[in-house]
Structure prediction request, 95 residues.
Amino acid sequence: MNSNRISARPSIRRHPSDFVSLKSNVRRKLMHEFGDAVPIALIRRAVDEAELTAEASGFPQLFFPVLAAEQVERVSRLMLPATAEGGSRRLFSAA
Prediction:
């Protein structure tokens, strides 16, 4: 077996410092953008969930920033007050 063979599936664990830096930068930008509307703990959780999804994709560094932004945007929308035409919005509604 050739030990120089490149794996077809990238991994966050293979280059942890690169991903840690990426995750930190993305989290900081999302906290800056959404920090007034979304509690920091929820932003961190959304970013962590995006990390897991990105890792499962096989291309974590490519998909992570977009997945993290989508997760935080979703939480932000759920945090909005109820609309005038009706009903309260629940933080953990089925999405």
